[in-house]
Design a protein that fits this description.
alpha+beta
Length: 541
C-alpha cells in the first residue's frame, strides 16, 4: 500500500495537479470574490450609489419615526415626508437649499408659480340684512282721547294707502268741542275770536275745514271720528285692539313704505380703509338664488361697534316688485382697487407660511438638475382675499412654491436649516417669556425633550391675547416643557412629561383660564370676564 502511494506521488502528472490546486487555493485567499480589481471597484461603486440614493421617510411631528417608504405616521396619521435628500453633487445648488427627489416632489404635490407685478384689487366680502328705510317709516297716532270703536286694519303686514280710514274713535272730548263750535257760531257777531279759537282746536284734532264747515251748517254733532293713514305702506306694528282706550298721542300703528329699502352690511375695521361712499357693489340674497342686485354705498357709520369691531355700511335700493323683504340676509362682494399699491407683486395666499412675526415663502432655485428650494422672508401688504400683496422680499420673475410649502419647510426643520420655526439654522425661534416654540430641527433630536410626549388639543380663542393666555396657562402646568397655540387652526401643540401631568390636567387648566377645549368647557363667569376681543362664543364656525 505504501509503495503504491509513493509511486503515485512520484508521478509527474500528480505533481502538476497538486501544484495547480495549491495555486488556485492561494488565489482564492488573495482574491476571495474571484473577480478583478476593476470588477470589485464597479461593484463597490454600485453599492455606494444604491445606499446613497435610498430615501428614509419620517414624520414632521415625530422625527423618531423612520420608514423606508412613504405612508402615514403610526402616531398621528400625518403624511410622512422624505428625510434624506438626493446627493446629486450639483455644484449650482445653494448649500442652504432644501433638495427633494423628483419622487418626493410628485408625492408632496409641490407646485410653483412665476410671480409678476400687477395693479392689485382687494376682494372684500360683506354680510348684511335688508332693513326698512327709516325715512319712509311713520307712526300713526291718535289725536284725541277716547275708545277704539272700530278697526279697519286688524293685523300686521296689511297694506294701507294714504288717506285710508284705519280706525274709528269714540271721543267725549270731541263731542264737547263740537257743541262749543255750535255755540260759538251763534255768538260769532259778538265774539268772532271765540269761533276762530274753537275751529283751530278742532283742526288740531285733524278735522278738515270741510268737516268743520259741515258741522256748522248741519248743526249736528257726533262723538265718532275716523283716523286716516298719513302715509301708504305696510303695517309693521299694531299696538291697539278694538275697545281699547287711548290718549292723544298714543301710537296706533307703525307703517313703513317698502318701495325703497336699505341693505345694511357689517364691515370689519381692517376693511374700512378700502371702502368709501359712492363705491359700487353687487349683492345676492339667500332667498332669491340666481338674482343679483347692485347699488352704491350711501353711508358709512363713523362709529365702530366695540363688540363686533365692525361698522355699518348702507346701500339704498329701490324695491318696485316688493321682492326685498326686511330681515332677508344678503352677501356682497366689493372689488376695491388699491391705487396706493399700483404695480406691486401679488402672490397666492397658499404660498405664504406665517408665524405671527415672520412671513416666508420658498423659491425654486433655477439652473439645477435636482429640485431645490430656498427660504425667503417677505414683507406683506394688505390681504387681497385669496392673495397677498408683497412689499419686499421677492422680485418680478421669481418662481415661488404655491402648493406644498409646508412639506418643504418640514424637511428644512428636520435638516437643521432655516425654516418657518427656525430663524437661523439649528436655532429655534422662542415665544413668550423665552419658552421655545419648536424643537431644534435636527433629525437626530426629538422636538420634545427626552422622556416627554407630544400631544395636540383644540382650544377656542380669537386673538393674540388669547394666544398669550393659552400658552402661559399651559406652560404653568408642572411637567409641560413647551406649548404653542395656532390661532388659525385652534390647535394647541404640547410637549410634556407624562410622569408629572397628562392632557386632561392641561385641558382643565386652560378651561379655568376661560378657553373651551375639546375636553372641558370654561365656566361662564370666567368667560364673561375675558376682554371683548377674546369673546369667541357665538363666533365659532
Amino acid at each position: 500500500m505504501n509503495t503504491k502511494i509513493k509511486k503515485a506521488v512520484n508521478n509527474k502528472y500528480v505533481t502538476y495537479g497538486l501544484i495547480l490546486l495549491a495555486g488556485l487555493f492561494l488565489g482564492w485567499l488573495i482574491f476571495p470574490g474571484g473577480s478583478s480589481s476593476d470588477d470589485r471597484a464597479a461593484t463597490a461603486e454600485h453599492d455606494q450609489d444604491h445606499d446613497h440614493g435610498e430615501e428614509i421617510w419620517t414624520c414632521s411631528m415625530h422625527p423618531q419615526i423612520r420608514m423606508d417608504k412613504p405612508g402615514k405616521c403610526p402616531l398621528c396619521a400625518m403624511d410622512l415626508i422624505p428625510l434624506t435628500t438626493t446627493g446629486s453633487g450639483d455644484a449650482a445648488i445653494d448649500p442652504n437649499a432644501i433638495q427633494l427627489s423628483a419622487e418626493a416632489v410628485a408625492l408632496a404635490n409641490i407646485q410653483t408659480t412665476v410671480v409678476s407685478r400687477e395693479n392689485p384689487v382687494k376682494d372684500i366680502r360683506l354680510y348684511g340684512t335688508i332693513l326698512v328705510d327709516e325715512r319712509l317709516s311713520q307712526s300713526q297716532t291718535s289725536h284725541v282721547s277716547g275708545r277704539i270703536e272700530k278697526l279697519m286694519v286688524s293685523f300686521t303686514g296689511e297694506s294701507v294707502r294714504q288717506g285710508q280710514s284705519i280706525a274709528t274713535i269714540y271721543s267725549p272730548d270731541l263731542l264737547s268741542a263740537q257743541q262749543e263750535l255750535l255755540e260759538a257760531v251763534k255768538m260769532k257777531d259778538i265774539q268772532p275770536a271765540l269761533l276762530q279759537a274753537v275751529r283751530e282746536k278742532l283742526s288740531l284734532w285733524k278735522l278738515s275745514d270741510e268737516q268743520i264747515a259741515a258741522i256748522e251748517r248741519s248743526g249736528e254733532v257726533s262723538p265718532l271720528i275716523d283716523v286716516t293713514a298719513n302715509t301708504g305702506g305696510i303695517v309693521v306694528s299694531k299696538n291697539i285692539n278694538q275697545g281699547d282706550y287711548v290718549n292723544a298721542g298714543t301710537i296706533l300703528f307703525d307703517i313703513a313704505d317698502l318701495s325703497r329699502v336699505w341693505t345694511v352690511f357689517d364691515a370689519y375695521e381692517t376693511d374700512l380703509p378700502f371702502l368709501k361712499v359712492g363705491d359700487k357693489l353687487e349683492y345676492a340674497l339667500q332667498s332669491l338664488p340666481g338674482k343679483t342686485f347692485s347699488g352704491r354705498i350711501s353711508f358709512i357709520n363713523p362709529i365702530l361697534d366695540p363688540a363686533t369691531r365692525t361698522a355699518k355700511i348702507r346701500v339704498e335700493t329701490t324695491n318696485p316688485r316688493m321682492e326685498l323683504m326686511p330681515g332677508m340676509y344678503a352677501n356682497a362682494l366689493v372689488n376695491a382697487p388699491l391705487k396706493q399699491y399700483n404695480n406691486e407683486i401679488v402672490i397666492p395666499k397658499s404660498a405664504v407660511l406665517w408665524t405671527g412675526k415672520r412671513s416666508i415663502v420658498y423659491l425654486k432655485q433655477s439652473g439645477t438638475e435636482t429640485p431645490s428650494y430656498l427660504l425667503r422672508e417677505v414683507e406683506l401688504g394688505p390681504s387681497l382675499g385669496d392673495a397677498h400683496l408683497v412689499l419686499s422680499g421677492i422680485d418680478d420673475g421669481d418662481e415661488i412654491v404655491t402648493n406644498g410649502a409646508f412639506t418643504i419647510d418640514a424637511s428644512a426643520q428636520l435638516a437643521g436649516k432655516r425654516s418657518m420655526m427656525n430663524d437661523k439654522a439649528g436655532r429655534a425661534v422662542t415665544g413668550h417669556e423665552g419658552h421655545s416654540t419648536q424643537g431644534s430641527g435636527d433629525p437626530a433630536h426629538n422636538p420634545a425633550p427626552a422622556g416627554h410626549e407630544h400631544a395636540m388639543m383644540t382650544v377656542q380663542g380669537l386673538c393674540e391675547m388669547c394666544k398669550d393666555r393659552i400658552e402661559k396657562t399651559a406652560r404653568s402646568v408642572k411637567g409641560v416643557s413647551s406649548a404653542s397655540w395656532d390661532q388659525a387652526t385652534k390647535q394647541l401643540h404640547l410637549n410634556f412629561d407624562p410622569a408629572q401631568t397628562d392632557i386632561d390636567k392641561i385641558s382643565q387648566a386652560v378651561a379655568k383660564a376661560g378657553h373651551d377645549t375639546d375636553k372641558h368647557k370654561a365656566d361662564q363667569k370666567v368667560y364673561d370676564a375675558l376682554p371683548a376681543c377674546c369673546k369667541y362664543r357665538g363666533k365659532l364656525r
